Each structure stands twice: as C-alpha cells, then as structure tokens.
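Two proteins, back to back. First:
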Amino acid sequence: MWRYKEQKKEGDDDAERSGQQVTDCPTKNCELEHNLARSQIRQNSSKYDEHTLNNNYEFEKIGKGSFGTVYLARCINSDDKVALKTVKMKRFCLAQSRKIEREKSAWTSVSSHPHIVTLISSFKLKTLFCFVCEYVDGQNLTAYIRRKKFLEEAEAKIFAAQVASAITFIHNKGIIHRDISSNNIMIDRTKGAQLIDFGVCTYERNPKKYCGTLYYVCPEILEEKPYDAYCDWWAFGIVLYQMLIGKTPMATYLIKFNHLDNLDHTSLIKIAKKVQKLRLLYPTRLSMNAVDMIEDLLQKNPKKRLKEGDIRIHRFFNDVPWPESVHN
C-alpha cells in the first residue's frame, strides 16, 4: 500500500466553492480526439511507474474533488517531489475511459508550455487511473487572491499574460479547456501561473451541453446553445476581474444571500444569468486599459468578444513580456 498522510486543504471562499459545479458529457466521435500523443513527456518518465512510487515515495493528500484525488508524492531518499492525480475507475464505463484518454491526450500535447503543469507519466491500477505531473510549489489562484484581497495591476498583468499564452497554445492544438477558473490556476513560487486540470476539455468544435464552473461559465453555455473556444476567453475575463477586484461578479452579487448553501444549482444558474446582465463596477484605481480588457472579453455575444489574435496585442499587455511556448 502507498504511504500517505492527509493534510487539510486550504478551503475556497464559500461563494466560490458553491459555484464549483463541473459536469462533462461524452463528445461526438472526433478524429483529433483519438490521435493520442506518440512521444513521451520525459525520457525518465518510467521512473514514476507504480512500482517505483510505491517503494520510494510517501504520499500526502493535498486536494480532492469530483475529478478525483491529488497527492503530493515525496521521495523518501531525495528531495524529488511530484503530484499524483488519481481517478477512481467505474466498472464497464466506456464513457469514463474515453474521458480519461481524452484528458491524457490533451494534457500530453500541451505539456511543453511553460505555464501549463507538465504531465510526466500515467498508469492504470486495478481500480484507479493515475496521472503523474510536476509538483507546483505554491497555491491556487483562489487562495492567493484571498490572502492578498486583490492583486495590484502590475502583478495581475504578468499572471494574465501567462494564462492567456497557455490558453492560446491549447486552442492552437484544437482543444477547448472548458474549465478556466482561479481554482485551476496554480501560482508557483518561481514559475508563476500554471494552468491545470484537463478533465473536462474537448476536441469537439461546437459542444452544446453544460460544462464548467458556474461562476466562470459564459452566457451561451447557460443558455444551452452551441459554444466554441471563446467560452475559455469569457472565463479568462472573469479570472482577470477576480484578480483585480478580489471576487468574481457572481461571488460579489451573492454576498447579499444569507443562506447560500440552500440555493440549488437551478437557482444559481438563474442568478448567474441575472448577474451577466448587470453592469460591472470598477474601482478608480484601475487603469482604463484594464477596464477595456475586461469589457472586451466579457461581451455576452461571443462574436463581439475580443478576438483571440488581438489579445496579445491589447493595450493592457503593452508593458508585459509575452511568454513563449517551448514547442509549438
């Protein structure tokens, strides 16, 4: 048995946690989805197989959710650390197997980007599927913002450029992430922003079913209309607002509710639709470039949203170096 000790994970804000409604739906047959990456992420990926981890590492639980459980695997005889994401396998569930293969394929194909957590290896146990990835020395963006209340614009620009570069890279691979949120962005002490979790990504061009974290979901998903990669840019706009203001628009609106836990998902969706119609307010400390960037991203009509090719050259990023991927 693997040795591990459980550690309580720093909780998210109540409002943010209640909005974590992630679902997934099987995609249509898609040629891209079955083109699994052929090359290994690392030459030494075999170092992190079941036998080696079981005999040389101890495990500490650092996260748990509907997606599975995440452990910090710490080598007993060295300073080596990796993260282990485990997904409990359902018996005779072809949809789950396809979903795991899709996550593995997508994560593998984008791991060369400096602001996407690198997938090192993966393997299957009797009842678990395991992803081994680089360990992020830090915390997620939700906790980082909560500690600071909000981010100064100069710092937010750096993280935003890093995440935007990662999203663009993902889209260039034919992938829609579908769950861009502050919970899925880690802040590493040395590497900066690191995007994680490809559990609900898709290669499908125009999916229709609800998918994502409610507070970051775009209008077309709430209306159950077909959507495209611009759902990720709406979510990115919400993350940028959250960094600069301290909370998402939805979380700010829900402060008035005394019993948030009593609201079911249907009620929250109705509230989310109402919030998306409200005019956002901004503190005077923000520059017009920051306000324009958020407003350009949070256009309810996806055709009016800031074009992907124009994000990098937006005035908001004028004084920030744009991160480049290692391999295109």
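And the second protein:
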Amino acid sequence: MSEIKLIRIDFRLMHGQVVTNWIKQVSADSILIVDDKLAADKFLAQVFLMAAPPGVKVAIRPIE
C-alpha cells in the first residue's frame, strides 16, 4: 500500500505550484484528483494527465 505524503483540498485541482514544488518536496510519485466533472470530461482529463511531470502518475476519479 502506498504511503500518503500530502492531502490537499482545493478547487483548482492540480495547478503549477503542486506540479513544480510540492511533488518534489514530499517525493510523491502519484496524484489523485477526485472531481465528478473532470472524471466525466475525457478531453479535460487528458490535459491534466499531460500536465504531470514525467514519472508522476495521475488518477482522476469521481467522488463516488
């Protein structure tokens, strides 16, 4: 089981500060985004997947 390094609740989901600073500071290898609208929008979800740094996994899930 993976160890949770950081939890953040933010309406911006994944933004530049998370990608450029926080991931490095906590040595995270994955990001979980929980958002119904984003999970239902395949195009926008792909944009978020591409925004992650190399080697960082991104999972997008609905709240349910």
